[in-house]
Amino acid sequence: MSAPAAFEAAGWLSPGAALALPVTIAVPLLGGLAVVALRRRPNLREAASLVAGVATAALMLSLWPVANDGLTLRLWDWLPGISLVFELEPLGLLFATVAGLLWPVTTLYAIGYMRGNLQRQQTRFYFFFALAIAASLWIAFSGNLATLFIGYEVLTLSTWPLVAHSGNEQAKRGGRIYLGLLLTTSIGLLLPAIVWTAVLAGTTDFAPGGILAGTAGTATLTLLFALYLFGIGKAALFPFHRWLPGAMVAPTPVSALLHAVAVVKAGVFTVLKVAIYVFGLDTLDVTGAAEPMMWVAAVTLIGAGLVAVTRDNLKERLAYSTVSQLAYIVLAATLANDIAAAGGALHIANHAAAKITLFFCAGAVYTATNLTQVSQLDGLGRAMPWTFGAFLVASVSILGLPPLGGTWSKWLLLLGAADAGQTAMLAVLLAGTLLSLAYLVPIPVRAFFRPPAESGHREAAWTLVVPLVLTALACLALFIGADAVIAPLNEVLESP
């Protein structure tokens, strides 16, 4: 089918409006090609990455006024019920906006980090980073499971060289675990789940309210839902979480990409997308098909939090914190009601802003002091007040305390658990918050209030400090502007 015919058949407002979807994916790809073309001129190479990032962010923001207009682009059909389709809807646009807005900030940070630490292969780094953003936008705007699966695999393959970037034996091992676990889960579990869905529903297209209602019994839907959630390895549920701590051998900007900008957010976004647009929240609620996975999410949330408390390596502690916080979003999907789903979606943005701040702070500390252990940070807040002030802000946001963005997502999750009558999950959510307090807050406390172990340290370079201050301010902005994010999502969640 030609593009104009496809537009007319879909009843779109205009070809130009829907063509914005592939254009947004093309911009980071073009940015990546520019990076390669300018590889011998580092300043221009990094400027190209920044310009592409700013352009992508601007495109994401420009799409919000038409987020609920149903823009869809169906390019071609491969098999009956399986097509290459892109669509614009609020949940996908939220994920795309997180990736788009954080890309230029992370690029600015990466300039200071990669140069400050004399990292090799910087052109390769910026190219694969751009490719990962393009894959994330592909996932965000996918109109069906088949299209999403392509982007999901490209994201894995494009981030693997970044995980193994350092090239030492530890990095290679981390890269092998990363690639092995994510490809094994996606090909061995997620792909069969997609095929099974196509057989049951006759389509892989996403639809508000889901496509599986009335297609199978409770046992079948329960098994299928488990296949999806374990198959979406990027969501890092136990026992398929080891790739995430193992990937911490990568440079800090890559850790920020994995934890906040693209990879894990692609995982939990896909979990929410499957719950809302494939199964349907009502179907999950009526059949109880999500309940077994609810307990898996609860075990992951508590278990990863307990492990985080025991870790002295700062990046490793933050990695297990991510595993725990991702489980909040998976738990939101399994609670199977509109309130929890809205809280889970909002937590994607809140956790992204807070966790990228925490990793930026960890990288700034390493670049300025060469310190990596929590036990080494005593008194460092006096020398690096901006860095540890931002760390405190992000920690409080993850705790869910006002006036920071995590307040609203944690509140909605608690309301969603209460609405579902899940008293045990209320206890899990509250216990998770106490664990967050235990593994995050002592870090800025010891940095500001303990006597310094050694003198001579000073604040990191401005290219590292400015990004972490901006992302800390984003935590505040998400508290003030949460309704602007939630309102378009509620229109979808409340639709029959």
UniProtKB/TrEMBL annotation:
Q: Where is the signal peptide?
A: none
Recorded GO cellular component terms are: plasma membrane
Domain of life, per lineage: Bacteria
Major location category of this protein: membrane
List residues traversing the bilayer.
12-38, 50-67, 93-113, 125-141, 147-165, 177-199, 211-233, 254-280, 292-314, 326-346, 352-371, 383-404, 424-449, 461-486
According to the entry, every stretch annotated as the NADH:quinone oxidoreductase/Mrp antiporter transmembrane domain falls at: 142-435
Keyword DNA damage attributed: no
Q: Which family does it belong to?
A: Belongs to the CPA3 antiporters (TC 2.A.63) subunit D family.
> What name does UniProt use for this protein?
Multicomponent Na+:H+ antiporter subunit D
